[in-house]
Specification:
A 4-stranded mixed β-sheet has the order 1-8-9-7, covered by helices on one side. Strands 3-4-6-5 form a 4-stranded mixed β-sheet. Strands 2-12 form a two-stranded antiparallel sheet. Helix 7 (182-189) packs antiparallel against helix 14 (358-373) and helix 18 (429-452) packs antiparallel against helix 19 (458-469). With 734 residues, the chain is α+β, with helices and mostly antiparallel strands. Residues 1-57 and 61-81 have low confidence and may be disordered. Helices cover 49% and strands 7% of the residues. Strand 8 and strand 9 form a beta hairpin. The protein contains 29 helices and 12 strands.
Length: 734
């Protein structure tokens, strides 16, 4: 994935923009893809890990709504380690009236898509949506069990169990209303001028809140061994800058829903309707001015353009009216140099703080505070939050069961406590062994393919092979687990529990500042249904959560596994050499190791891919954005090529024995198409096209396959078929 967070947080139903890490708006990731639903965004530090993913260009194979795997409509589907699946491809969902050479995705999935309705509690169904629900059921079983035990205080069971109980007690939450947020709102009400506003924004970071400054700690892109302070753009409540300027009817409708949401929060805290509506209009106007300074998603893809190393004195020059030394003191930041991703935001912030009325700024920060805490307040606040982020933005009709929200909250807040219990119960050691063997096979194939490239010089090949050889591979779960000793959890204080986690996350950031990078750290929890490539660590990571059917089954034939998790492995490897990843060397440093001629040839070949995906449409004519999705499309195309060649090295791949009536090669491609079987709402589709770096599921299937001669042979694709692409128009990079 690339810059997953943006979309991921929105998908989950949490506040992205000033959660507050929306700042690192480098587009995900987030990716993400699937029905994740984080229930609470206390502020930016609630999701420290995901911010890091954005900044360090982490690429996930799926995350953010678009993604995923397919549902397991196989009758024997059961994630229990005690069951043994015997059927690995679901023929019942196929539409055999479709010629596979015309639309392979619909050939494999058409009947299922026609007969499937998206549940009202979801923004989509199939793929990772269903897989994630199954995953959450596993976690729910764990939480139900441990929450009923008499656990020792401070134990992992006590913390995750009591956090679950506190979040499930919505009666207590409803009785409190917004009482827990009043101390922060009271502080904001005392603001007299913009200097007071900056002070409160900075001071609040230490309480797990914090506003206006997109701060986090992660490796220096040009010195990946050291952690540094980063400041990225932030301050928007909608997915990205275009939502403030686009004039199409769908975007206008979303802006209206956003102002309705803002006004609703103010009326819930006592404002009359007229006053609340004026505050909402003023906040939208202010955020529109802020959006003028933001880079767009495609611009955020360029790691060089988003790298600005500044001394504190130079940062001060960009914000002459903000006392940076005092700001850092209040935030407990001890640093002489920092990285600023998008300096224009901070230049604009300095000017807007003085030029815009202080009362509007106070309302803006008040809204941010209420919005960030809404999921932990009374029902009216939770409903208002849902109405905008889930219903208006994504088309979700009704809220998910409370237990699913709590599973996500606990997995994100105390993920490596819950993860220890999860892997012990659901991740058998032999799955890790087989996965490691597959990774080694794909890595050998990638090496061979680089060596044989006819467009790359020997000098650049040498560097590429060094980078490939240096890949670190992480499978399942961390070798050492994070500790949460400073997190206090009580079964009857949900808001305070979340506050404690938020403070822990911020302090964890500060502890890293100026210190060597701990390359053993994971940035997804063990139960996460996803995978990622982290360029500053030069690593590929596969949590235990994704190593389940249909991505992976230790009992499946090689065609199924290589067509699913094999493609994912190749996908993450290819991210190390996509338009962004290729700019990082074997040590994870942002450093140009290409000859000028090879770089030009790479860009020419990638342009062919951009043109291909620009031609795909959804919703009666909305085009896929080839430039925005180029990194994921490169990974999809490269991953499929590498996985197929690795599959051909297996005994099944060398043979021609049919299973379910299909040859081994056909079964490989069928497995991948089944992986992407899904339907998503029109609203979520539109959101994905605007902000998601992944292409829609159909084109993650048909796009790469239309570039593969082996697919043409397996399904008899001829020039007259719709999936046929002339040899000169096929993508040939890795």
């Amino acid at each position: 994935m690339i810059y997953l967070l943006t979309i991921w947080l929105i998908l989950t139903g949490s506040k992205l923009a000033d959660c507050n890490y929306s700042s690192a708006l480098k587009l995900s990731m987030y990716a993400a893809e699937g029905g994740h639903d984080i229930s609470f965004c206390f502020s930016r530090f609630m999701f420290t890990t995901f911010i890091f993913q954005k900044k360090s260009n982490m690429r996930s194979t799926n995350r953010v709504w678009l993604a995923a795997a397919t549902l397991l409509l196989v009758a024997c589907h059961n994630n229990s380690t005690n069951s043994k699946r015997t059927v690995f491809f679901d023929k019942s969902g196929m539409d055999t009236t479709v010629n596979p050479a015309d639309n392979f995705f619909m050939y494999v999935n058409g009947k299922w898509i026609k007969n499937t309705k998206i549940p009202p509690s979801e923004t989509g169904w199939g793929g990772m949506y269903t897989m994630t629900v199954d995953n959450k059921k596993q976690l729910h079983d764990i939480l139900e069990e441990v929450s009923k035990q008499n656990n020792d205080k401070g134990s992992k069971e006590q913390k995750v169990g009591d956090l679950y109980l506190s979040g499930m007690d919505t009666t207590a939450m409803d009785k409190l209303g917004y009482e827990p947020a009043k101390p922060l709102l009271s502080k904001i009400s005392t603001v007299k001028d913009y200097k007071d506003l900056v002070n409160i924004s900075a001071d609040s970071f230490n309480d797990g809140d914090g506003f206006l400054f997109g701060f986090y700690v992660s490796p220096d892109d040009r010195n990946s061994k050291m952690n540094v302070a980063h400041f990225d753009q932030t301050g928007l409540g909608m997915p990205d800058r275009d939502y403030y300027f686009n004039t199409d009817s769908a975007t206008i409708k979303i802006r209206a829903a956003y102002t309705t949401y803002i006004a609703k929060l103010f009326t819930l805290t006592g404002a009359d309707a007229a006053t609340a509506n004026k505050k909402a209009a003023d906040i939208l106007k202010l955020e529109t001015a802020i959006a003028q300074s933001h880079l767009a998603p495609v611009e955020l893809r360029d790691p060089v353009k988003n790298y600005h190393k500044l001394s504190v004195a130079d940062f001060q020059k960009q914000m002459p009216d903000i006392d940076v030394k005092d700001l850092f003191h209040r935030m407990n930041i001890k640093a002489d140099t920092i990285l600023v991703g998008q300096p224009n935001y901070y230049v604009a912030l300095d000017k807007l703080l003085k030029s815009q009325p202080i009362d509007v700024w106070k309302d803006k920060v008040t809204f941010m505070a209420l919005d960030g805490a809404a999921a932990a307040l009374g029902k009216d606040f939770r409903d208002a939050h849902f109405a905008f982020y889930n219903k208006a933005l994504q088309g979700q009709k009704v809220a998910q069961p409370r237990w699913r929200e709590m599973v996500s909250t606990i997995d994100n807040g105390l993920g490596e406590l819950l993860g220890q219990i999860y892997v012990a119960k659901y991740f058998p050691p032999d799955a890790k062994t087989r996965m490691a063997a597959m990774v080694a096979n794909l890595k050998a194939v990638y090496k061979s393919r680089i060596e044989k490239l006819d467009w790359m010089s020997a000098a650049t090949k040498t560097k590429a092979l060094e980078k490939l050889a240096a890949f670190t591979v992480k499978i399942g779960y961390p070798d050492k687990w994070k500790k949460y000793d400073d997190v206090g959890i009580s079964k009857d204080a949900y808001y305070q529990n979340m506050k404690s986690i938020a403070k822990h996350n911020y302090n964890e950031q500060l502890k890293k500042l100026g210190k060597p990078v701990d390359k053993s750290e994971w940035f997804m929890t063990p139960s996460t249904v996803d995978a990622y490539n982290n360029p500053t660590n030069n690593e590929i990571v596969f949590p235990a959560g994704i190593l389940q059917f249909p991505f992976f089954d230790k009992d499946a034939d090689d065609a199924i596994n290589y067509g699913a998790i094999g493609v994912v492995i190749g996908h993450e490897m290819t991210h190390g050499f996509d338009d962004q990843g290729r700019q990082y060397d074997k040590d994870g440093n942002l450093k140009d190791w290409w000859t000028a001629d090879d770089a030009a040839k790479f860009k020419q070949r990638v342009q062919v891919l951009i043109n291909q995906y620009d031609g795909y449409t959804v919703l009666n004519g909305i085009h896929v954005k080839g430039a925005l999705t180029q990194g994921e499309n490169l990974a999809d195309n490269g991953g499929m090529q590498i996985a197929y060649e690795a599959f051909k090295r297996t005994e099944q791949g060398k043979g021609d024995a049919k299973i379910d009536g299909f040859t081994p090669d056909q079964r490989f491609f069928l497995s991948l198409a089944q992986l992407w079987r899904m339907k998503i709402s029109d609203e979520a589709t539109r959101l994905n096209i605007n902000t998601n770096p992944h292409s829609p599921a159909m084109y993650r299937t048909n796009g790469p396959m239309s570039n593969m001669p082996s697919f043409y042979k397996a399904f008899n694709v001829k020039p007259e078929n719709k999936m046929y692409r002339a040899d000169t128009a096929r993508v040939k990079v890795w």
